[in-house]
């Protein structure tokens, strides 16, 4: 049993995303004073009373215009209604009743879903009742005056909503694997999400910047749930103007931060660009698990050496992701898309893997036996006393040594390679913390001082 869904419907710029932020308490739907910012349907977890549910934000509905993305937005809104237990129709109390509101209300009355009417932008309680009164004529039912900005009136709206939602207390809480789909514009991120889901979940268009917000979708494979997060294409900073795209890119970075594994999508036709290198560095810095997905592989003319040449190109230009697995796919044709889940599972498992101290020290002993730590001209040699894992996501190992400055970058990379050769860690970065005697002495001194202070008190 999955969580019930509540669709948020309305014409452009009535405050749908503001209310979604209010309902979900996440404040991460893009809110900008411009029509058409939300295009796909985006899902956010929400809670009220004793119920968990999902709110799905949809694009602004316009019925008398078939230009640009508007027909696709209508298609997305209809899909959201089809899977919802209830819908909330948002109108603008300040602007008053419009012809567009009447068209949407007429359309909603034909849908087999209970609909609640929320009159937004009613910041004043007294004025709100007056503003809401004219919307009785829509034939949807009682209009609830609310303020998405201040939150007034939303409690009464949510209480009424609960009467239409099923009991969620019996839903089993299963840990999801969070997967962010990241890449430059037009590399096929939304096509990949749609291939995973098996439906047109995201608007796919050759126009750069189609996806604005981070789009969450939960899919199950076997008994494992995956939260897939499609993100806005990330362009060079100098090419991004302040506005919806700016916020969309920030959401993409946040999606990386809250994910377990990142699907880093490359365009096989374009190869590895400078922007791809910067994104790869961002993924490595954030410490996320990663799978490199080379999309549009069907568009490449191939011979027996093509794939090896491409793997070498990726290894050379994305060397800081050398630990990530690479898969070559066609999202549009569905080629090898299912195999990505196997790589996600490996990366997620390794990302949260914990290794015992005894095993870590066996690896360190073997590493020192095969390649002794470097010695300075003055005869000082580095010594590794012991190591222990201090955290996961990503696996982080503290190495206690006599002096970290005695270990050059080459030897540090050698130790990391030894860990990977002996323990695996495929698909995840491994962080090594080199801690010297002075650090430990300072820590012990701080503890001793704290003990003395407590004794005096």
From TrEMBL:
Classification via CDD domains: EngA1 (cd01894), EngA2 (cd01895)
Sequence positions that bind GTP 2: 183-190, 230-234, 295-298
MF annotations from Gene Ontology: GTP binding; ribosome binding
Sequence positions that bind GTP 1: 10-17, 57-61, 120-123
BP GO terms, sorted: ribosome biogenesis
Transmembrane segments: none
Keyword Transmembrane helix belongs to the record: no
Subunit structure: Associates with the 50S ribosomal subunit.
Database matches in NCBIfam families: GTPase_EngA, small_GTP
Protein name: GTPase Der
Species of provenance: Phormidesmis priestleyi ULC007
């Amino acid at each position: 049993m999955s969580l019930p869904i509540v669709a948020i419907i309305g014409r452009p710029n009535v405050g749908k995303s503001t209310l979604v932020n209010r309902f979900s308490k996440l404040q991460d739907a893009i809110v900008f004073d411009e029509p058409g910012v939300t295009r796909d349907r985006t899902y956010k977890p929400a809670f009220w009373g004793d119920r968990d549910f999902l709110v799905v934000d949809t694009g602004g509905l316009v019925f008398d215009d078939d230009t640009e993305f508007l027909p696709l937005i209508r298609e997305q809104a209809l899909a959201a209604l089809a899977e919802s237990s209830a819908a909330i129709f948002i109108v603008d109390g300040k602007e008053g009743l419009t012809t567009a509101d009447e068209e949407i209300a007429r359309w909603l009355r034909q849908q087999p879903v209970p609909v609640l009417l929320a009159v937004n932008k009613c910041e004043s309680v007294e004025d709100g009742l007056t503003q809401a009164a004219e919307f009785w004529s829509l034939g949807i039912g009682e209009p609830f005056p609310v303020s998405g900005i201040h939150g007034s009136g939303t409690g009464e709206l949510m209480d009424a909503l609960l009467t239409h939602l099923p009991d969620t207390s019996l839903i089993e809480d299963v840990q999801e694997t969070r997967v962010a789909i990241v890449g430059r514009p037009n590399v096929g991120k939304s096509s990949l999400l749609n291939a995973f889901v098996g439906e047109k979940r995201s608007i796919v268009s050759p126009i750069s910047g189609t996806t604005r917000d981070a789009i969450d979708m939960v899919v199950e494979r076997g008994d494992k749930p995956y939260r897939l997060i499609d993100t806005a294409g990330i362009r060079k900073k100098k090419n991004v103007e302040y506005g919806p795209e700016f916020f969309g890119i920030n959401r993409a970075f946040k999606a990386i931060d809250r994910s377990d594994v990142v699907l880093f999508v490359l365009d096989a036709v374009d190869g590895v660009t400078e922007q791809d290198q910067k994104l790869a560095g961002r993924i490595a810095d954030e410490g996320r698990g990663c799978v490199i997905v080379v999309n549009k592989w069907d568009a490449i003319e191939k011979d027996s050496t093509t794939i090896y040449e491409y793997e070498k190109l990726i290894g050379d230009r994305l060397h800081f992701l050398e630990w990530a697995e690479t898969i070559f796919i066609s999202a549009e044709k569905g080629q090898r898309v299912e195999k990505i889940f196997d790589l996600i599972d490996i990366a997620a498992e390794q990302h949260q893997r914990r290794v015992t101290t005894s095993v870590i020290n066996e690896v360190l002993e073997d590493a020192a036996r095969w390649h002794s730590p470097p010695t300075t001209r003055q005869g000082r040699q580095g010594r590794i006393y012991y190591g222990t894992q201090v955290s996961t996501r990503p696996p982080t190992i503290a190495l206690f040594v006599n002096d970290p400055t005695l270990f050059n970058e080459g030897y540090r990379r050698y130790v990391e390679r030894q860990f990977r050769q002996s323990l695996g860690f495929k698909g995840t970065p491994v962080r090594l913390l080199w801690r010297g005697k002075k650090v430990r002495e300072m820590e012990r001194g701080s503890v001793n001082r704290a003990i003395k202070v407590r004794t005096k008190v």
